[in-house]
Write a structure and sequence with these properties.
This protein is α+β, with helices and mostly antiparallel strands and about 130 residues long. The chain has 2 domains: about 80 residues; about 45 residues, no CATH class. Strand 1 and strand 2 form a beta hairpin. Helix 2 packs antiparallel against helix 3. It starts with a helix and ends with a strand. The strands form 2 sheets. The protein has a two-stranded antiparallel ribbon with strand order 1-2. A two-stranded antiparallel sheet has the order 3-4. Bound molecules: zinc ion. Zinc ion binds next to loops.
């Protein structure tokens, strides 16, 4: 019953996209900061409501082309940052088996097995060679 209602309600609407997730997260960040006493807290509370409004407005919006364009722009702007975070996660989870180097020429992240001593590393992207200690 509720599922059917939600299904019908969100048909033809933008729904909860990645940008919504981001503004939703900001809603909570500012909500937490609203516990700061005085006018700073009040501003944080106001910002929290602004982002809550943006999140809900974008989720139920029927102007899907416009909302998709905003979401695409958001993904484009944060692509570098998201790649960095993904790289950090990979490095952390594989830190025992692999050592990571950044190519000095093209800044590609390179992975080599640990415990091989000092070796020549060839960049898989640009072919640049440099030495590193594993
Ligand atoms: Zn390179």
């Amino acid at each position: 019953m509720i599922r059917r209602f939600l299904f019908n309600f969100f048909r033809g609407r933008n729904g909860f996209d990645r940008l919504c997730l981001f503004t939703w997260a900001l809603t909570f960040v500012f909500l937490l900061l609203s516990f700061i006493p005085g006018w700073v807290g009040l501003i944080m509370q106001a910002l929290s409501f602004v982002f809550l409004f943006i999140t809900l407005f974008r989720a139920i919006s029927r102007n899907i082309p416009r909302r998709s364009a905003e979401n695409a722009k958001y993904l484009e702007l944060t692509a570098g940052l998201r790649r960095k975070l993904r790289n950090m996660k990979t490095r952390f989870s594989q830190r025992k088996e692999y050592k990571f180097f950044t190519c000095p020429t093209c800044h590609t992240l390179l992975r080599v097995p640990r415990g091989k001593g000092r070796i020549q590393i060839t960049c898989s992207k640009c072919g640049n060679r440099f030495s590193g200690k594993t």
